[in-house]
Every structure is written in C-alpha cells, then in structure tokens.
Amino acid sequence: MSGYNGPGYGGPPQQPGPYGQQQPYGQPQQPYGQQPGPYGQVPQQPGPYGQPGGGFGPGGGGPMQRPPRTGSAVVAGLVAFLVTTAIYGFIFWKADGRQIGYIAVGAGAIVGFAVGKVGGKHPALPLFAALLGFGSVILGQITGFVFALHFDLDASFGDIFDHFDVVTQAWKDYLKPVDFLFYALGAGAGFSIARKVGDQS
What we know:
Helices cover about 55% and strands about 0% of the residues. By secondary structure, the protein is an all-alpha fold. It is elongated.
C-alpha cells in the first residue's frame, strides 16, 4: 500500500466539478451558469436585443436610421401642397386679399412636415419641400381669386377656367413687394421643417 496516493491515502482530495463530475487536477472549476463551450471556450453573454456586447446597430453604435423613401415623400408632399393651397386660398378670400404671415408659415410647415416624416433624411427633400411651400402661397393667392369670382360674382368654375388668363392677370395686378416676403416665409418653413423632421425620422 506504500505507493498509492489516491483520495483518502495521503493525496489531495479530488474536487467534484459541476453536476457531480470530477475535475482534473490543476484546472480551475467553472462557475455554475457558465459552462464551457466547444474546445473549452466560454460562450459570450448576449447583450440587449440579442446582440453580443449590447448596442442597437452594427458595432453597438445606436439605432439604425431607416433609408429615405423619396417616392412616397413626393406623393405626400403633393397631397399636402394641394390641401394647403386650398386652405390658403380660402383664408385669402375671406380676408379680402390681406396677407397673414403665419398662414404662409403654416402652409410651408405642413408641406415640410409631410415630406420629412414620410421621406426621412435625404438632402434633396428639404429643397423639394421649400419649392412646394413657395408654390402653395402663390397658388393659394390665385385660388383666393377663383373663390372670389365663384362665390362673390356667381361665376361658374367652368367659365373661370375657360378665362383663366383673366384670373392670373388680376393676381399680377394685385402683387406688391411685400408678397415676396410671404413667398419666402412659405419656402423657408417648408425647408426647415422637412430637414428637422427628416433628421429625426
């Protein structure tokens, strides 16, 4: 019996491993809950949303931004343009041709919001929204003249559009230098709102 050094006979007692398995001498015992993978590697703990190490996008940088949808933004902008043109024309007619600054800003802002919200971040979309904001104020004024001819002078829409050159000439005669300020307000609101909303989308 002198050459035996097993457990209980002078040798170091063998430590049981996880789940009752014996660990070889000289190797540290793995803590419970982190079992070694193939070839002795400890698997990496998943981060938030199932990605190793956490993070939303590649490399854990931040939330991924959706790609721009320019086609849908053009459609949404044109629809908003038609709506704001009609609203501006109605207010212009009811105000007897008096310009209201915040109405021009509101028309551009509605168009810009629609373009930016639907389209997302794209360098051309704020310029497109500025063009629509500019046009909504101009066509809103012309629409105001159409409303005046139809509701105040009982002219039918057919007769008005048959002689639309009369409408545009009346609009040109009406123009004053201050009107270009309102055009700029509509364009500026469309540009700034589309860029801001697009960056946040």
